[in-house]
User: What shape does this take?
Amino acid sequence: MTLHERISAGKGTIKADLALTGGRVVNVNTKELLRADIAVKDGIIVGIGDVSDKIGDGTEIIDITGKFVSPGLIDGHVHYESGMVTLTNFAGAAIRHGTTGMIIDPHEIANVLGRKGIELVLGEIEDLPSSIFVMIPSCVPSSDLETSGAVLDAPTVTHLLYQDGVVGLGEVMDFPGVLAADPEKLDMIEEALFLGKRADGHCPGMTGSDLAGYLCAGITSDHESLTYEEAIEKARMGMAVMLREGSAAKSLREFVPRLAQDGVSLDSFFFVSDDRHPGDLIAGYMDTHVRTAIELGIDPIDAISMCTINIARHYRIDHLIGSISIGRKADLVVLDDLKRFAIDRVFVSGAANIAPKPMYPAEVFDTVRFKRIHPESLRLNSEIGSDVEVNTIVAIPDAIFTDWRVETLHPKDGILYPDPARDILSIAVIERHGRSGDIGGTGSIGRGFVSGFGIEGGAFAQSIAHDSHNVIVVGTNFEDMALCANEIRTMRGGIAVAYDGEIMGGIALPFAGLLSTGSVESVDAKLRGLHAMMREIGCVLPSPFMTLSFLALPVIPRLKITDLGLVDVERQKIVDVCR
Assistant: This one.
């Protein structure tokens, strides 16, 4: 529809395709609930209120008397790769829960496929009905203490910032680099600001002068507040505070009641998921954020605003989406009940759109490139004949940080074996991108010990290991560990569980070693089966694969492991396993 045609549609000289009549509209612009009809032409809202002059013979009229209409919900920050499915399948599942818009940070794809991966995502978005906007990852790799599949340097990031559909620079996790005025990080931020785009933050625990310095760099948001007091300080300093409720990290039940009690303005707060695992995506999406906020004391219109207009205004896309306003995209959620946010139907661009199935290049299915692993490749040797003290990672349930404990092991024939009776398991990270050696050759392998999983036998592994997504494997014996690693090699990426020399089950994730091309439902069914297997072998963690995926992230405290070895995160140094 040309601009001239849009004006004519607004005036009523060109008739609407669709009219929703008899409902009550959630107006997030004025924070009102208004009785009004809605007229839509070519996916654009052209009338609100009395739209009788816009209805013609070809107009589809849908009576929604007694119902409410909300703007389509938006996720203000998500790594869609957490759903283990392609963007097309993730977005399709999101629509069913009223989430018609997303601000995605394809950080995981970038770490494996680099610039080509980002460009592939941007191309896929063009064919999707959802309103999806991209933040360009700023920290690929997140650390020089690991081997990533790709590097996004400042010139590459600058090039990507100029692309259509890009609204800013993704979370700047390297806050020490910002505070130290690292030239490359500042170049990225300055380019985003020059283009009038946002720079997302990532600064857990940061307060006071450091926070002021970080904000002076031009960063305007954060989703990592550890306490309510920290979040309020950031909001008072002018930051947009993302209230996160994802599969891995949650803050709504701690923060929202305090916000409701204190009566502060909610304009600087909005909802994000950060991640959404397959089962959680099936159960609900941003509708659960709105519903939970209402249950915790936020007015329904305010809760909806925090999941629509607040996000759109922050990212400067409110002229496109985020409200039921003239000239905006007709992303609409019809509700049976406002306070329960009970969804009746969802319109994307004024229709129930179905995205075409995309075709992906062969190279995205060829990213797992390590030589066949033998059990002895995963062993830790010790020349000490007596007891050895070993630095041990302690996994914590439903957390992305870890603890650090010193355990004692007794070498046998010069080898340090795991001790499952004391919940001391072997862990290894295998470089899988072919960057630490010849493609198909022997890459780097980091070895260590971990506690907290509780498995009594067997092993499990996956090619999802933030942020560089090398293959990470944990087990009670080296034979099952090697079996899992080699199964992932055969599947070209995925998750595998082994016991007593046999593969018990797995999920193939061949797209960048991170995603399945199947449906969310099929991936969830397989994942639930693997969780059951983990319980059978004694695992005590509720989400072992999520927990495992963060044990290789060398920027979140306290002790982590990469393909280069054990990492003391606070000192940003490789440390020996044996003390």
